[in-house]
Specification:
Blueprint: E1 2-19, E2 25-45, E3 50-55, H1 69-80, H2 82-85, E4 95-97, E5 105-107, E6 116-122, H3 133-148, H4 155-163, H5 169-174, E7 178-182, E8 186-189, E9 199-204, H6 211-216, H7 231-237, H8 243-249, H9 252-261, E10 266-271, E11 278-282, H10 285-298, E12 303-308
Parallel strand pairs: 3-6
Antiparallel strand pairs: 1-2, 2-6, 2-7, 4-5, 7-8, 9-11, 9-12, 10-11
Helix pairs in contact: 1-3
Bound molecules: 4-diphosphocytidyl-2-C-methyl-D-erythritol 2-phosphate and adenosine-5'-diphosphate.
Adenosine-5'-diphosphate (ADP) binds at residues 62, 68-70, 127-135, 137, 168, 211, 273-274.
Length: 310
């Protein structure tokens, strides 16, 4: 059995520069990744079939059908690495019961061949929350199945597949701090001194927020480029330009930011991606853990997760 973590993604800063003719937006962002997230496991099967089961705190309501990003990633990999699947895809799909717990209808998406897999996703990250859970799952599926089926693709090839699946997925393939431009496909590894190992607390008010409506609410004002010359510059001069339109849709984001900002030992509190998740960077692990405990007691309905930046 092989295991991959689908690391939670954070936009330490997110500058939206312009709306393109194709409807996507040109971004400048510093991506960082937390050392935990969803977990994807693959077990071998020799009949060429692929199944997906989902369990964990956010499994409920998440479709295990063909549109799940894990399946979409698997299908894209199979099309580039057909010798491993030895099946013909697409084929009519039929529901197939799985024995895993939780939201667990597997689907057969490949015909007979040598290399199938039973995939099990433990969904720890809230869905549609600005920390790229679905994107991280797709990226983890690409990394995992590339190893599992011995496809031999390098990061560049995996990123090329990822780009066709979603804007954030190439960055999630790498899952190390990156300066990201374009709509998400232009990646530059960027290890800012002081960033890796930083204690972080993520907080979400428990309200899902889709990405498209938040971009739609952006006021189209270019507020200038992102200075990633140092962590201090990103903290002092960086922004999340999607915060105002996200707050217009989910006013509770203001409460989350206010609470995180007021915690002892916070260096930066900001919204991630299109929200509604926010994060706080701390001076020390103990300050981060104590904020986690205190806020959990105050706001039992909020989702909280603490960790270290990779
Ligand atoms: C805002 C960001 C910041 O990292 O993260 P999330 O909030 O999703 O985590 C990303 O740009 C989101 O990337 P991702 O969630 O992969 O978006 P996609 O599936 O490609 O696109 C969903 C929709 O968002 C809008 N979109 C996305 C990316 C982009 N650069 N410009 C856009 O306008 C488009 O309306 C698109 O139809
Ligand atoms: N494995 C998956 N996990 C989460 N969302 C998924 C998955 N597969 C497909 N989706 C869909 O992708 C959308 C975006 O999910 P997600 O990546 O969690 O959002 P965000 O990028 O805002 O954090 C959701 O609306 C969900 O329906």
């Amino acid at each position: 059995m092989l295991i991959e973590t689908a690391y939670a993604k954070i936009n330490l800063a997110l500058h939206v520069r312009r709306r393109r003719a194709d409807g996507y937006h040109e971004l400048e962002s510093l991506f960082a990744f937390v050392d935990s997230g969803d977990v994807l496991r693959a077990e071998p099967r020799n009949d060429g079939l692929l199944t997906l089961s989902i369990e964990g705190p956010f499994a409920q309501g998440l479709d295990t059908g063909p549109e799940n990003l894990v399946y979409r990633a698997a299908r894209s990999l199979i099309s580039v690495c057909p010798e491993r699947s030895r099946g013909t895809y697409p084929r009519p799909m039929r529901a197939r019961p799985s024995t895993a717990l939780g939201n667990s209808d597997g689907l057969q998406i490949m015909d007979s061949g040598q290399a199938g897999a039973n995939l099990h996703l433990t969904k720890n990250l809230p869905v549609a929350s600005g920390i790229g859970g679905g994107s991280a799952d797709a990226a983890a599926a690409l990394r995992l199945l590339n190893r599992f089926w011995n496809c031999g693709l390098d990061d560049r090839a995996l990123c090329a597949i990822a780009e066709t699946l979603g804007s954030d997925i190439p960055a999630c393939v790498i899952s190390q701090s990156l300066r990201v431009e374009g709509r998400g496909e232009a990646l530059e590894a960027l290890e800012l001194p002081g960033l890796s190992g930083t204690p972080i607390l993520l907080a979400n008010p428990g309200i899902p927020l889709g990405t498209a409506p938040v971009f739609k609410g952006w006021d189209q004002q270019d507020r200038g480029p992102l200075d990633t010359s140092s962590l201090e510059a990103v903290i002092a001069l960086g922004r999340n330009d999607l915060e105002p339109p996200a707050r217009a849709l989910v006013p509770e984001i203001g409460q989350v930011l206010e609470r995180l900002s007021a915690a002892h030992g916070v260096r930066l509190a900001r919204m991630s991606g299109s929200g509604a998740s926010c994060f706080a960077l701390f001076d020390s692990v103990s300050a981060c853990q104590s904020a986690h405990q205190i806020i959990a007691a105050e706001q039992p309905e909020w989702w909280l997760m603490s960790g270290l930046l990779r």
